[in-house]
Every structure is written in C-alpha cells, then in structure tokens.
Specification:
By secondary structure, the protein is α/β, with parallel strands linked by helices. It has 14 helices and 14 strands. The chain binds pyridoxal-5'-phosphate.
Length: about 450
C-alpha cells in the first residue's frame, strides 16, 4: 500500500474523496490469500462448485455468437438476459415486466447509480445498523448523512426507523431513501419479518421516500418459508413505484461475471440509465450471453439448490463450533440462509484491535466497525461460512475463541491487578491515616 496520508496530490483531489474509505474486506484480501489462513472474512460464494465442464459448455454455446459477445451492447442490457431476470424474479416471488428491468455491472453498480441519482451532499439515508459496507462505501462518495436504525432478530426495528425519520424531518435533513437487505442480511445474517416489510412500505409512503431493497441472498434459504419481497408487496398493493429492487447473479451463479440488475419504475430507470452511460456505457455482453445461455439451457435451479445445501452444512458447522468453543459472554445470530453470522463480544473487547492476533493464529474475520458509518460495532465481527469447508470452519472458530478468551483473561488479570493495586493503596492509606490518628 502506498503512503496514502502523504499523498502529494492532496490539494488536487475532490472533496468527496475525504468521505471515501476502502472496505476492510478488500484490504484484508492480500493477507487472506496467505497459505494456512482460515478465512472467515470474505463474502465469497464457493465458485469451485460450478466446475470446469459446465464452464466449457457455456463458452462453447456462445462461441457461434462471438461477434456479439465481443461487441458493445445497449446500456439497459440485452433482451435475452432481461428475460432471464424476469424468470429469476418470478421464481423469487416478485412479478416483473421486462421493461422495468435494467442490467448493471453487479448489484454494487446499482448501489452506486442509485446514490448518484438520488443523493446531494448532506442528504440523508436510513440504513440498517449494521449495514453492508459496500453500500456505505458507494453512498459515501456522494457525501450523505447515514442514519443507522437498530435491528433485532426480526430485522430493522420500525419504531426506531420512524423515530429517526421524524427527527431527521424536524432537523431539516432530507432523507432520500431507506436502504435494506431484508433477507439474511450482510453482515448480520438476520431476516426482516413480513409484518415489518409492510410497515416499512407504509412508512416510505408516509414520509414520501424511496426504498432500496437489496436482495442478493434471498434464494439461498436453508430453512423456513420464503417471505414476500418489498417489491412484491408493493405490487400487490398497486404498481411498481417507490421500491427500487436490486438483484444479482453473484450468489446464484458467480460473482466473476459482475452482473446484476435494478428493477424500478421507468422514471427512476431513465435517470439510472443516464448515470450508467457515464460510468461504463453498458455491462459486458460476454457476461450477459454466458448467463443467458446457462439459465436458458441448464438446470440453474438445481445449481442453486446444490449451493444452498453446501452452505447450510457450513452454517451448521459454524453454529455448532460457536456453541462448542465460544465463551458464554459471546453471542451470535442464527441465519436461516445467506453467507454470514454476526457475533457480539463483550463490550470492552475491540474486534479491530484483536484482528492481528487472530491472523497470527491463522484465522481471519471482518471487524464490525466497517459496517457502521460512525464508530459503532467495535465489539462485533462478521463471520463468513460459505467459502471454507466444515472441518476448517470448526478449527477456525476454535482458534478464534482462543484469541477471544486470551483477551478476556487479559482484561480480568488487569482488573484483578488494578483492584489489588487499589486495595493495597487504600490499605497503605488507612495504615498511614491510622498512624496519624486521622481518617479521611
Ligand atoms: C448486500 C449486498 N449487496 C450488494 C453486493 C454486491 O454484489 P455484486 O457482486 O452483485 O456487485 C453484495 C456483495 O456481497 C452484498 O452483500
């Protein structure tokens, strides 16, 4: 890493650069590729599951259309991939029309474009607390205020969201949208219950806001019944209006193709289209054609089922290991799907400060701080279970629990030490005052 703080072009950079920071996970990547490290840090799907033969087959199937695959395409995406997206959304329970779908370079680009078209400096966004760090980073470039709304096991807490919105309105802040990952949230692993989804929609109506529903993990459900998306609930009540839905092929196919989509009403899509023209003209035709070919000709749902079964086994391994090894003062979430568990350590522990020690012991995680815009989450960690085999997950959690115990013991020793120090100091004081015949 260059010495970014001593950058000699500081006087030339735009003001917005000050708000931008790199994601802890991205910075960690170099360390995590070190042999022997058990990484519970990344958010990686297990692309090893896809296989060379299936990949070869897709490549062969689009070779005849090489000229188109290698060409620029329409900004909103090719027709064939939009048909696939409509099908995927239908399987997820959200009816969609082809004209309401817009292809992006990953859902990540969707987040950036939404921020680009909605946020002026000083506008506010309501996010879950904690929130997906990649979204916070994408928003940060447009310099908004981020208000985190606390979550519990049932997702974002509506009463708290309403309070925050009221306060923002009173203080003259312009809240533009609510950002939520309702299913198996990154990083907390919790799912918003149906009732709260409806409440959130009503709130958006009342305060006249947009809801950005980011749903990369909805199809990776291990147990329980699928819940209606906010986009589907809105359509039940009327038409596509204030819900901007983000989808992606990263978790149901592969992140390497960098392909996602936005589903929204035409006015919003038009602005996003203009924004995307300035960003990358269009997403890769090659990726779009590979995905269309696979989703049209192969049993993609069977592949998603295979991934889900594999992640479930790994989630179970993680939950079992946490129960077996962690000190009783540590708590964690029980995700019904997705890729992540969120752990909460005793409040006096600092997961960021603890990371080098964990890495020295060959285990890595993402400290919780990066999932908040303003300094919370110090005693939290995000643990990923999708990329590492169950036996390694178990070993990783065992190592991590050793690091946590070390820190807890260190703290107890320090406390005992300071108490001893205190009691010997006060004993000396009483002895002295006794000798002097005074008390005080
Ligand atoms: C909640 C959430 N949104 C968006 C993204 C970005 O996904 P994509 O690979 O489609 O850009 C991720 C990636 O992990 C994510 O967890």
């Amino acid at each position: 890493m260059p010495l970014v703080d001593l950058d000699r072009f500081d006087f030339l950079y735009a003001g917005r650069v000050k708000g931008m920071k790199t994601a802890a996970t991205r910075d960690l990547m170099a360390t995590l590729s070190r042999p022997g490290i058990i990484s519970l840090a990344g958010g990686f799907p297990d692309t090893r599951a896809f296989g060379e033969e299936a990949f070869r087959e897709i490549s062969r199937s689009i070779a005849a259309d090489a000229a188109q695959a290698l060409q620029y395409g329409p900004t909103a995406g090719l027709e064939a991939i939009k048909d696939v997206i409509v099908e995927v959304m239908a399987v997820e329970g959200t009816p969609a029309r082809q004209e309401d779908v817009f292809v992006t370079t990953g859902a990540q680009q969707g987040l950036d474009l939404i921020a680009k078209v909605f946020l002026d400096e000083g506008d506010a966004v309501l996010c879950e607390g904690p929130a997906y760090a990649g979204a916070l980073n994408a928003f940060a470039a447009y310099r908004p205020r981020i208000a985190h709304v606390p979550m519990d096991r049932a997702g974002m807490i509506p009463v708290a969201a309403r309070e925050t919105l009221k306060k923002a309105r009173k203080s003259g802040l312009h809240v533009k949208f609510i950002y939520t990952v309702p299913n198996f949230q990154n990083p907390a692993g919790v799912t918003m219950v149906a009732e709260r989804r409806k409440e959130l929609l009503e709130m958006a109506e009342e305060f006249d806001l947009v809801i950005v529903e980011d749903n990369p993990y909805g199809m990776l459900r291990f147990e329980g019944e699928p819940l209606p998306s906010l986009a589907a609930l809105e359509q039940e009540a009327g038409d596509v209006d204030r819900v901007v839905y983000l989808g992606t092929f990263s978790k149901i196919f592969a992140p390497g193709v960098r392909l996602g989509w936005v589903h929204a009403q035409p006015g919003i899509l038009h602005k996003i289209n203009v924004g995307k023209q300035g960003a990358d003209l269009c997403s890769s035709n090659l990726s779009q054609m590979m995905i269309s070919s696979y989703f049209q000709n192969a049993d993609w749902r069977a592949y998603v089922r295979r991934l889900t079964a594999m992640y479930k086994e790994r989630r179970d391994a993680m939950l079992d290991a946490l129960a077996e090894f962690m000190p009783k003062e540590v708590h964690w979430t029980h995700p019904e799907g997705g890729l992540f568990v969120w752990a909460t350590l005793p409040s006096y522990l600092d997961a960021t400060a603890m990371l080098p020690r964990a890495i020295a012991k060959n285990v890595a995680y993402v400290p919780g701080e990066g999932f908040y815009a303003g300094g919370s989450g110090k005693n939290n960690m995000r643990l990923n279970f999708s990329f590492v085999e169950p036996a390694k997950i178990r070993r990783g959690i065992e190592l991590l629990s050793e690091v946590i115990r070390e820190r807890m013991e260190l703290r107890s020793d320090l406390e005992r030490g300071s108490q001893r120090g205190l009691s010997s100091r006060s004993a000396n004081r009483s002895a002295r005052s006794f000798a002097a015949g005074t008390e005080g």
